[in-house]
Amino acid sequence: MRNFGYFEEGHTRALSERKLWMRTVVLLKPFKLPFAAAVLLSLFVTASGLALPWLMQQGIDRYITDSSTSIDLRISGLATIVLFYGFLIVLNFISAFSQVLILEWMGQSIMHKLRQKLFSHLLRLQLAFFNNQPIGRLVTRVTNDIQNMHEMFTSIMITLFNDLLKMACIIILLINLNPKLGSILCLFVPLALITTIFFSKLARNHFRDIRKQLSKLNSFIQETVSGINLVQIFGRTKNMEKDFAELNNDYLTKTLRQIKLFGTFMPITELMSSVAVAIILWYGGGEIIREQLSLGELVAFLSYMRLFFQPLRELSQKYSIVQSALASAERIFHLLDNDSSEKEPVNDRSANHALIQGDLYFENISFSYKENQPVLRDISFRIKAGETVAIVGPTGSGKSTLINLLLRFYEADDGVIKFGTHPIQKISRTAIRQKVGVVMQEMLILQDSLFKNISLDTGKNEEEITALMEDAQLGEFIKRLPDGLDTTIGDGGRAMSTGEKQLLAIARVLCRNPSMLVLDEASSAIDSRTEEMLENTLEKGFAGKTVLIIAHRLSTVKRADRILVLKKGKIREQGTHAELLASGGLYSRLLELDFAT
Asked: Residue 318: CB partners within 8 Å, gap ≥ 6?
């Protein structure tokens, strides 16, 4: 079967059910008091429920079948029994209602914290983690899988506690009520446990497969919708429909397999219940005939039998919820256990910022995304403070990889990158990314006002942003918008041209006032007029600052103080535009191929 480019963590070691339960219970730690209250209420629910058959026995044996007592006393006694019966029903309702409210609040709070924790963990993972992770799969973790665990906290845990407590109490009551009949029930206990454990293991595997297949569906839908223009341009509609149908059919097959398993488990539970009742009727009826057992005791015994098998039936009904939640918990914990999060040095943030100054050094840098497939080979160069350096080269020569290493999205395999005498490993990623402004060819547009898109987390007000735009010669750009800085852009708002997006990217960087600017193919998809406006903005806003340019256009590259030419991960040439052009080497050939025009 095709996997449609999807990779699942099925290769990872599955967590044992005991470990899953232990880690799930740990999530309850901040909610000790509410959980204790829910447990206390469960005692009231159980006690009030188990008292009802006993009251029935008392009513039958003491007042209905006891002809030795006067009719008035029997009716009066029955009335008292009914009052107690009604009181217990009300107590059971209030206790159960209060328990549901507490559990729902507790479950929603746990899901809220877990969802926030998982999302925060994703934000801190290294960029390499996302290379082989379909977006739909990660979305499934934060949404579907989290929600799938909701029932675990709102009802399953307390339900299991209630049911186990109820079953234990029933066994004790029945043995005390009639040891012979109680021993018959005990014969069904190990059979019920064996059946439950057997189906538990089978159901867990089925639900793990279902969750994986759902992630595949989400990934496929997300990737298809995000690239719908390419799908339609290249006439891939029929192919995508066929691929989706295959994924959808597999999901249906896996779901039906689970339903068949559930459909087998529940009738087996019903069968055990019916057989137990039949045996009790046969044996208990004989005991009544032999006057060894009262009618009230038999009725109470049958009621307790019904209450004993009721939790098993409910467990079979909720079995899908339990196993599905455990499968989701396993996947969530696997993601949380991923230790590829970005580790930061302990240095003070202000000290980190102070380290990002002076010349920038790349010393003997080698790097590969995949083993034995090097992208950079022993790269060494220096960028002086205030210098503008351009890096050019064919596609795949490693230009953007240098930027990824500078920003610490990845760590070099060999060599060191330094600001002055300070290796970047000693500087926090946050400090580097705040002090090194990056303008890329593609950028994220928030569905919000232009002001919010520019200011982001800098805390600048509209007056400061307006003054900054004027200083950077972007005032005309703002004036062309219908509502100025309050213009809504992004999805559902005003569509922006490629050139306008680049100007927005420059404005974002200016707002941070970085000490170094990196342009990564920033002008490759804009017209000459916008490019000229972009260059004027850069000259005005970043005068005297260090600038690193990765570009194809000659008009951008030729203004650099120095140009580095990369090919197959190595520096082949370096010098000014005029020097490289006069040498007639690789740079000249690239220009002849219109590489930088």
From this structure: 151, 155, 156, 159
